């Protein structure tokens, strides 16, 4: 039944247009702010952020496997293509896991909105790579957009540090940015190759979640001692862990299957694959900044506000044709 519904919507011409791709990227990107909110809030509630990722990956993997078998939505690509696409997405997930752990630590000693914006400013790199290697069209307006995005990154980075961490959060945020730049390029890479279109969204989700799961298990095994084991047992009895897990995975599964990968494929088919992450992460930066003001009650400094405005301007320009 679910597969028939997906096929029905896929047959509608709108879902193969650039407009659908743009709308999908904006919705998915905006939903990502929930990840930042959880990763920043979990340690404050005594929840190990890696456990949120671990159990989230377990839930998502089990649910995705059930959906795949229930809908018979198997990969029709060769086993080699399926393997390489899955491997790339799993490695991308491992990098994303590492970035989220660094970000969570940075958010404990620095301004959440600024840290999120610095890390997510890595959105400019997939676009640059797309222009250099995958024939994403370059225009002067898009060039100006790249310049503004880089300028926004600088403005975010020079935001005055009022914390007592000695700037440690900035080092963690920059490390997260570098990892994110690599991760985003890997994540968008399969969408440039027509053969990868035969690897359905649900298979990609499973590969991604397995990458998260393996990374979380290794991360916890490395840190394992009696104290950490006691914390794990305590967290498993804490209802907040499961609230975080369910909240994140509902949107992750639903949007990945219906919007994320289908939208990326449409944009890549139209020669606009490099714009996927700029749109998603730009929307994410805006939504998280607003959330940090309204929910976290963080004060926005003039430099941060200027950086946000510059970022929005760069996002608009980079999405022009």
Structural features, described:
The structure is a single chain. The chain has 321 residues and is an all-alpha fold. The chain has one domain (31-188, 200-318). Helix content is 75%, strand content 0%. Helix 2 packs antiparallel against helix 12 (239-269), helix 6 runs antiparallel to helix 13 (276-294) and helix 10 crosses helix 12 (239-269). The chain is globular. The mean pLDDT is 83.
What's this model, at a glance?
Helix content is 75%, strand content 0%. It is mostly helical and 321 residues long.
Q: Structural class of the helices, strands and pairings?
A: mainly alpha
List how many beta strands DSSP finds.
0
Low-pLDDT regions: none
Gross geometry: globular
Helix count, DSSP H or I runs of 4 or more residues: 14
What kind of sheet is the major sheet? none
Distance between the termini: 39 Å
- The radius of gyration computed from the alpha-carbon positions, rounded to a whole number of angstroms, is 19 Å
* Beta-strand content estimate: under 5%
Helix content range = over 70%
Number of domains: 1
Integer average pLDDT: 83
Order of helices and strands: HHHHHHHHHHHHHH
Give the secondary structure arrangement, pairings included.
Layout: H1 2-10, H2 18-31, H3 33-41, H4 49-71, H5 79-107, H6 112-120, H7 124-133, H8 140-157, H9 168-188, H10 201-222, H11 226-236, H12 239-269, H13 276-294, H14 302-318
Helix pairs in contact: 2-12, 2-13, 3-5, 3-13, 4-10, 4-12, 5-9, 5-10, 6-9, 6-13, 7-9, 8-14, 10-12, 13-14
């Amino acid at each position: 039944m679910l597969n028939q519904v997906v096929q029905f919507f896929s047959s509608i011409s709108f879902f193969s247009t650039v407009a659908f791709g743009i709308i999908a990227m904006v919705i998915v990107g905006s939903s990502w702010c929930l990840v930042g909110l959880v990763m920043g809030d979990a340690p404050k509630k005594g929840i190990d952020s890696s456990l949120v990722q671990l159990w989230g990956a377990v839930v998502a993997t089990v649910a995705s496997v059930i959906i795949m078998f229930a809908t018979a939505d198997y990969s029709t690509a060769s086993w080699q293509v399926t393997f390489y696409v899955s491997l790339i997405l799993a490695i991308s997930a491992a990098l994303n896991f590492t970035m989220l752990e660094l970000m969570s630590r940075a958010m404990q000693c620095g301004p959440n909105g600024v840290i999120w914006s610095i890390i997510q400013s890595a959105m400019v790199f997939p676009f640059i790579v797309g222009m250099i290697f995958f024939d994403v069209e370059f225009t002067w307006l898009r060039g100006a957009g790249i310049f503004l995005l880089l300028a926004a990154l600088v403005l975010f980075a020079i935001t005055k540090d009022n914390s007592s961490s000695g700037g440690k959060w900035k080092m963690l945020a920059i490390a997260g940015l570098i990892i994110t730049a690599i991760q985003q390029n890997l994540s968008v890479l399969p969408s440039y190759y027509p053969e990868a279109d035969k690897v359905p969204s649900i298979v990609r989700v499973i590969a991604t979640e397995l990458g998260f799961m393996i990374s979380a298990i290794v991360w916890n095994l490395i840190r394992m001692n009696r104290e950490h084991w006691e914390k794990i047992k305590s967290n498993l009895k804490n209802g907040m862990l499961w609230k975080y897990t369910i909240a994140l995975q509902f949107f992750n599964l639903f949007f990945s299957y219906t919007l994320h990968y289908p939208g990326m494929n449409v944009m890549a088919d139209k020669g606009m694959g490099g714009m996927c992450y700029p749109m998603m992460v730009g929307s994410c930066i805006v939504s998280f900044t607003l959330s940090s003001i309204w929910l976290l009650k963080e004060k926005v400094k003039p430099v941060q506000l200027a950086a946000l405005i510059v970022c929005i301007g760069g996002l608009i320009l980079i999405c022009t044709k």
